[in-house]
Amino acid sequence: MMQQLDQLAAAGSALAQEDLSMFGRDPWWLVVIKAVFCFAFLMLTVLFSIVWERKVVAWMQLRIGPNRHGPWGMLQSLADGIKLMLKEDLVVKRADKVVYLLAPVVAAIPAFMAIAVIPFGPAGNEISIFGVRTPMQLTDLPIGILYILATASVGIYGIVLAGWSSGSTYPLLGGLRSCAQMISYEIAMGMSFAAVFLYSGSMSTSTIVESQQNRWYILLLPVSFIIYIVAMVGETNRAPFDMPESEGDLVGGFNTEYSSIKFAMFMLAEYINMVTVSAVAITLFLGGWRAPWPISTFWEGANHGWWPLLWFTLKVQLLLFFFIWLRGTLPRVRYDQFMKLGWKVLIPVSLVWLMLVATVRALKNEGYDFSQIVLYVAGGAVLLLLISLLVDFFRRAEVVEETDGDGAFDPMAGGFPVPPLPGQSLPPVPRRRPRRERELIVSGGTDTVSDGIGNDGKGGDGA
């Protein structure tokens, strides 16, 4: 299998023929303009997303959202940012002050860096800015996706350092949770990326988008897309996976001891990460800057000029709405359920799927017919399903054998309440006395004998 993967990678590299010569030729002033554009795109998208989230969630919950600042309340995010900057800036007495002040910066800066390799338009169809032809992308690298993963990993350190440097228990627990999420969910995320690398033959973002000219990878690699969507929600600490800042059990999580502009930087980093992971999902699975299918078929100029920027922005807003939709509909899961999803579901499924994709690509390179490949893959999938059904059947039989007899079990044995499994039953719940009995007991009636008090008002049996 490893030899086949090596041959597949070599063949993919030969097919990709990635040409990055158009990058790195811009004059310094144009590089500055493109960097400022990327920064402004992120900031404006964040300002709009915060208002949009509050309005959409308000609409879902049948209440009124922001409607005071600006037309339709669109300047509410700007007003909140100004308010946070004017608030008193507090520094906790027991905090490690250097790390405490550095943590928000470490969380925010890497969030801006990942957008540098995201293509907003085709690299071959250059646009003109002040008479200079340039691609609609700041830069690109042969390992652009690995660069994005690296910057995303560095941003987690800001949250971990914030929890540790605060000198408080709850922020420390929030930082540790964020570290555990990063480890468990970036493994599944990386393996979902590997399937894209096998199909495109490149790690360059512009080459990956170019390879989706005929068919988007969401159709070819649907399992990788679903794994990445779940992993990106966990990676950004968004509901229902917002464990590092769970106010139900951690007060405010890693940012409990932060106020003023430092707190605003953590919020800014979260929303910028949402935009970044959405842009990565679009680049890898949704055709990047390409127009959707109905438009691209009857309009030849849909993917030329400045139009790709519009399609890219609409796709980003669609995925941001998905984030908001999750927050407005799903409750927060327990932390043990969250980690189980990462380690016991996403990672095994992504590993099996990656091996399946590598096998299909290797068979195609060997010249096998498509029907034969489908037959082999379907046979392997059916075999795995049969094995899983047998394992599940014997596991259920063992549970039933262990719970023979009265079938009672302790729902609090694991430290938190759990529902009964098949074959188990809850212990009897003590019932309240009927209302007539309670009235007799309160009034000192005859039923008070059962409580050890006789009718004559003395203890025992009244003797």
From TrEMBL:
Residues 454-463 have a biased composition (Gly residues). GO terms for molecular function: NADH dehydrogenase activity; oxidoreductase activity, acting on NAD(P)H, quinone or similar compound as acceptor; quinone binding. Its EC number is 7.1.1.-. The keyword Lyase does not apply. Pfam families: NADHdh. The keyword Membrane applies. It is found in: Cell membrane; Membrane. It comes from the Bacteria. It is a multi-pass membrane protein. Signal peptide: none annotated. GO terms for biological process: aerobic respiration. The chain crosses the membrane at residues 28-52, 98-121, 141-164, 185-204, 216-234, 271-289, 309-329, 341-361, 373-394. Residues 420-429 have a biased composition (Pro residues). One of its GO terms (cellular component) is plasma membrane. Keywords: Cell membrane, Membrane, NAD, Quinone, Translocase, Transmembrane, Transmembrane helix, Ubiquinone. Residues 420-463 are annotated as: Disordered. It catalyses: a quinone + NADH + 5 H(+)(in) = a quinol + NAD(+) + 4 H(+)(out). NDH-1 shuttles electrons from NADH, via FMN and iron-sulfur (Fe-S) centers, to quinones in the respiratory chain. The immediate electron acceptor for the enzyme in this species is believed to be ubiquinone. Couples the redox reaction to proton translocation (for every two electrons transferred, four hydrogen ions are translocated across the cytoplasmic membrane), and thus conserves the redox energy in a proton gradient. This subunit may bind ubiquinone. Belongs to the complex I subunit 1 family. NDH-1 is composed of 14 different subunits. Subunits NuoA, H, J, K, L, M, N constitute the membrane sector of the complex. This is NADH-quinone oxidoreductase subunit H.
